[in-house]
Amino acid sequence: MKAVVVAAGEGTRMRPLTANRPKPMLPVAGKPMLEHVMDACEGVVDGYVLVVGYHADAIREHVGDEFRGLPVDYVEQDEQLGTAHAIGTAEPHVDERFLALNGDVVFDPGLVRRLAETGTTTIATMRVDDPTSYGVVGLDGTGEDGLRRADSIVEKPDDPPSNLANLGLYAFDPAIFDYIERTGMSQRGEYEITESLEMLLDDDHQVAVVEHDDRWLDVGRPWELLDATEAKLDDLEGRIDGEVEERATLKGPVVVEEGARVRDGAYVEGPVIIQSGADVGPNAYVRGASVIGPDVRVGNAVEVKNSILMAGASAGHLSYVGDSVVGRDANFGAGTTVANLRHDDDNVKMTVKGERVDTGRRKLGVVFGDGVKTGINTSLNPGTKLGAGAMTRPGESVMEDRGDSI
Predict the structure, then answer these.
(1) Which class would CATH give 230-398?
(2) What is the mean pLDDT of the chain?
(3) Which CATH superfamily is 2-220 part of?
(4) What is the pLDDT of residue 307?
């Protein structure tokens, strides 16, 4: 059995973080989301087919031709025309039952095994409080094998047939490719796999339903990287492979990877991952749930709280970075302060594709694209985004989004 992993999209709602990389390559708990999905298939599949498109080379270079000793094939989706179109591109590499998984979700690995073991076409579902915001799966009893059967799949219905949300994770027989070929374009301008499944049901094919009641996160907007990282770091087990100087203090689960350094006077309160090449301290305070990425610098009198700092980012001295997602090679000028809490104590809002969105987070700082630079003593408002390469002036107060890639 192979896993077909769809990783072709840009993720426009993730801007500016996706200006230079596809969304599945964004990090959660220290490694790309795509890698989490592929790891979840360990012991279940004997190979992978990755559907790539936007910045495909970033995925090819990271994954290579093998992953954990298993072969990896690539297919190119030149235009992102929907889930059915994406899965359909994998047909030349699939001649038996296979898994179809999105490359930008975070879930517990046991779900993959349950999908694989059903032996038939299967949809993963989860019970939700408000099914009108999801694709919803209706049920039609239980088969002789004890598996529940689907009788309908409806996108964002006003009158849901159940509260079982479609998680976008499937097991398919190769027969699905015939139905994909017959699938027309939806009103959204896409070829959707749910339409293919509806035709399968109309032809009296059995479609099993697996209900998932554990972790599943659809990571589509910048702050959801924080949500996913917090969830993953719940299970963190500390280890020290790098250098921790004598007068540094580590509390709780902290990982210091080989090649990382924690200097005297630093106080690290887990869950925290400090990745290879990172340099923390002296006299820095890092607390969970935070990931200090490869070759990141966190210097004197800097506090990092509940944040993701991607490779090569730097906060050299006298700065505060809270509840933030910071792109590669970004630099905080001395005295830069991130505000992460509104004075009225309401949830922080962020602009996504031109619309103000309630993030559901009481505390949320900033989102920086790659290469952002702040001048000394910059102040940044909660929920602010700075596009790739954007800059601020010394002493500036930034109250709204800035840059071309947001």
Answers:
(1) mainly beta
(2) 93
(3) Spore Coat Polysaccharide Biosynthesis Protein SpsA; Chain A (3.90.550.10)
(4) 98
